[in-house]
Write a structure and sequence with these properties.
The protein is an alpha/beta fold. The chain folds into two domains: 38 residues; 201 residues, TIM Barrel (Alpha-Beta Barrel), CATH 3.20.20.80. The protein contains eight helices and nine strands. Strand 4, helix 5 and strand 5 form a beta-alpha-beta unit.
């Protein structure tokens, strides 16, 4: 009976599972290291390709959060290699100290006048008057809304912009990508340009950025002088015979304006800029 009891006890005792060998942590660490190295290389490759855009975004973000510290006396060095420098402004720049601006080699200024079919820039009249008073050669521009009628937009501009002899040609700013049909957009642009040229007797300037020009405008308006916005490049990628003004920065500073302003250079010399002005009407 003792033997039987011992055997029963042994049979009812829970069996112990065999102890599995402990896995080494080295392969897991190597895998994590490889993943980390791969992510680092991918990040470096991405930065190497898009470093200009990344740096620009970082600068703009920093500027946004430090804007309250600006005094209106900040100054960005002018672009070397050019002798005629200018700015373009709108109500976004707030009240401008034009006499101060004129002290810092700003020879011309394009001033926003209108947008779409109803909008009038709230600071146009003041900027228009004060820029001329300090000897800065002025021009006016219209911000084009591509889904609105070109004739109505031209009418808004001529009712609000009293261009006279000595002023720079009118400008059409075409860069809004929110349009339904590129062919319709081009027809409206052509209408605005044609009506404005007929009204003022001078050929308008077409403003746009490099990517928009290449995608939608290249080859369609070559008879009009081109003012090209192209940032983060040493020079525009378009040939020099394609453009007359280069907007090389939209984050520059000039004393007299509190906050960033667009910087532009004219491709020719000062005499060539003067030759672009609206002439006196023949008697």
């Amino acid at each position: 009976m003792c033997v039987t009891f011992a055997m029963a006890t042994l049979m009812n005792r829970p069996r112990r599972r065999p102890i599995a060998p402990r896995r080494s942590a080295a392969p897991r660490r190597r895998l994590l290291l490889l993943i980390g190295v791969g992510l680092l290389l991918a990040a470096l490759a991405f930065y190497g390709r898009y470093w200009r855009q990344i740096n620009r975004y970082a600068r703009l973000t920093y500027a946004k959060y430090t804007a309250h510290q600006l005094t209106g006396r900040e100054k960005t060095p002018l672009l070397t290699g050019y002798t005629v420098h200018g700015i373009d402004v709108s109500s976004y720049q707030g009240r401008i100290d034009w006499p101060e601006v004129a002290e810092h080699q700003v020879r011309f200024a394009f001033i926003k006048a209108t947008e779409g079919v109803t909008l009038r820039d709230s600071r146009f009249q003041r900027n228009w008057r004060e820029a001329r008073a300090v000897g800065i050669y002025r021009g006016a521009y219209h911000y084009f809304q591509p889904n609105y009628d070109g004739a109505q937009q031209a009418d808004l501009f001529v009712r609000n912009v009293p261009l006279t002899a000595g002023d720079l040609p009118p400008v059409l700013d075409v860069e809004d990508p929110k349009f339904h049909d590129v062919a319709v957009m081009r027809r409206n642009v052509a209408t605005w340009l044609r009506l404005i040229e007929r009204h003022y007797g001078v050929r308008p300037i077409l403003y746009t950025n490099y990517n928009f020009y290449k995608r939608h405008l290249a080859g369609h308006f070559d008879q009009y002088p081109l003012w090209l916005a192209h940032y983060e490049v040493e020079k525009p990628l378009l040939p020099r015979d394609k453009w007359i003004i280069w907007q090389h920065s939209d984050e520059s500073h000039v004393p007299g304006i509190r906050g960033p302003v667009d910087f532009n250079v004219f491709q020719g010399n000062f005499a060539m800029l003067l030759a672009m002005r609206i002439p006196e009407k023949a008697e």
